[in-house]
Amino acid sequence: HVERSKEIQAARLKLPILGEEQVIMETINENSIIILTGETGSGKTTQVPQFLYEAGYAEKKLIGITEPRRVAAISMSKRVATEMNLGTDVVSYLIRFEGNVTNKTKIKFMTDGVLLKELENDFTLTKYSVIILDEAHERSVYTDILVGLLSRIVLLREKRNDPLKLIIMSATLRVEDFTKNKKLFKNVPPVLSVETRQFPVTIHFNKHTFDNYEEEAYKKAVKIHRKLPEGGILIFLTGQHEVNNLVRKLRKAFPYHRTDETNTEKTKESSDAHYSDSEDGDEMDMKKAIQNSKKAKKKLRSMLSLPQISLDNYKLPTDDTDADLLDDSSIKDDDSDSDSEEEDNLSFVDLKSSQPMWVLPLYSLLPSDKQSRVFEKPPEGARLCVVSTNVAETSLTIPNIKYVIDSGRVKTRLYDKVTGVSSFVVTFTSKAGANQRAGRAGRTAPGYCYRLYSSAVYENEFDDITVPDIQKKPVDDLMLQMKCMGIDKVINFPFPSPPDLVQLQTAEYKLKLLGALEAVESSKSDKLTKVTPLGQAISAFPVAPRFGKMLALSHQQSLLPYTVCMVAALSVQEVLIEVSQEQTNEKKSKWLPTRIKWAGAGNSLLLGDPFVLLRAVGESEYAGSEGKLKEFCETNGLRPKAVAEIRKLRVQLTNEINLSLNDVGLCVDPKMVPPTDHQAKLLRQILLAGMGDQVAKKISDDEMKDSDDRQRFKYGYRSPEMEEPVFMHASSVLRKSKPEWVIYQEIFETDLKNGASKKMCMRG
Ligand code: ADP
Ligand code: MG
Questions:
Q1: Bias category Basic and acidic residues: which stretches (predicted)?
Q2: For 108-147, how does the pLDDT look when each residue is reduced to its tens digit (9 = 90+)?
Q3: Residue 316: how many CB atoms within 10 A of its CB?
Q4: How far is ligand 2, taken at its centre, from the CA of residue 235, in Å?
Q5: Whether the Cβ atoms of residue 548 and residue 540 lie closer than 8 Å to each other
């Protein structure tokens, strides 16, 4: 029996899904698999688990709900606990590094990755009576695989007379991928849709599509706030950095000052809260992660004697352009420095009389208590304005939004086909995405959506729908994980949208080269492969398999701190500011001398550009621990953002290794001494072990038959992947010594100026 408060009960009754409870529960009782669709905000995530609980599904086993985003797993578990008047020990969540699951837990929210890991140990999910795969329309790789796996697990559990229910929940997008796929479901599961009350949303396109959408978004928000009636504003940008910047600008333009009137206590509290989010979200997460994990706690004690970066004190540049991570700390500065704030406001002539704005950021890495502020009522007299990444597109529903400002952009991770190294790029979202965003405005009353792009761009340049992740990424890492779970013929796996055959074959071939997979010696010889013990070790690391192999090998040689640093540095793009290819005269580059100095001599020189990276990171961290990171980066040609990213990745890898390997007591040491000559030699072997498929050999004189060849092949290398000769990039410290054999991180085509022809270049 659930006892809900009056307010909660009233709020629930407004949700369209409440009227459908009986139909939904009857369909679930009669079918093992159902698909439930409904617009964002209709109550799927918060209500269905409660329906199941009240129908007795949690009496003997758990109700499990997966979310593609950590944000949703945490905040939804909290919301459901509150609605049901139950503790977080009963309605709990589990994400990587963090969670509050107990042995009393009945309803468990988790990320899809967490459930996939659980499957490795308990393939039929015996602890659960129901699994809800939420946000299936997001088409995250893990959710896609879970759909495929669960379609079979449900059958297994049926045979055992211990039925497991599967509920696939999604917005009303592309349900056909699940229903029209005969390989996935022989019998099409019933599809229920929840009708949502949607008020009309008036859409305004911009005449032009500007590149500086951040600036446009700011202007639009100012305009709406000054000219248009009451109602919350929701702004979609692409990333944490942009979000924080705009939040700061808007807070400055329409400051909210605490009033010292009647309920001082409360106002003070909320006002403090307003300005207290100075920590970078990620670091908060890491800190929490360390605190929450029991194992890590133990480890922490043994690590305390070792030098560590203080997570509280670490300073990054905080000027407008580069304050990527700590932007909110400058919000704090603005607050304390109210004189200059006053002055700035003078330029907004009619602002004095203007209403304050209650501006809140929203992005995945924001700590969950800060995220949940978007659900609270803004202070009396202030207008709510939420600046968000696309987490507000479908994962979280913010009450009372009337105006949506849509940049039309989204940040996605693109993978380098050659190296598998990923980078983030900003692109246009899809039409479906843009329409979801617009829909956020019409939940409680008619709304307005301002698109910061033209209708022509929308029509011609936006894709209809977003391609599922599984068809965009290299699948090496997925292939390995599936093989680790005993899925031998990945090609036959019932994916909702299968990756193409070439993608799968490339992955298998690369994993064999790495030694993570080996051919199964069987008479039928279906060219089957299975995971090797090395492959098992590799799959434990959250990086590309080639980097996982490097980490696995360095544990043997006690080189982990260096490899962690090197892998982190190699995984981040453009750490060192580029020495361009045209600057063939080496004197022209002002960075090169430092790089050559960092490259050192002997074995370290033979470790080439990765060693330069290792030194660069080492030296910049050292400078950072002395508070001089910014100057250091400027003088030595490093991108401060990249340094910050590398550091995050180092912290993450270090924590993960400490969790999975006992007694290594690894820490992120800002004052790491450079490796010795002998260590550099071992690191070179490790690098080769991970990148053995990317080797090139200098073209020998024998190969050059005439002067024409000599012209073309001079200083050239042969790589098995290329027909053309490849050349060393100008930024490489090995350009002078030109070793007989090299390993490269990537090959790309350059555009040479002065009419010269294109060249294939090796970098890293
Ligand atoms: P769906 O999963 O269909 O998108 P949800 O169950 O997430 O819908 O949300 C239903 C309603 O509950 C929404 O209107 C949302 O605003 C409200 N809601 C969700 N979480 C919270 C919260 N933490 N505080 C207040 N309201 C919330
Ligand atoms: Mg939902």
A1: 258-277
A2: 999 999 999 888 789 999 999 999 999 999 899 899 999 9
A3: 19
A4: 20
A5: yes
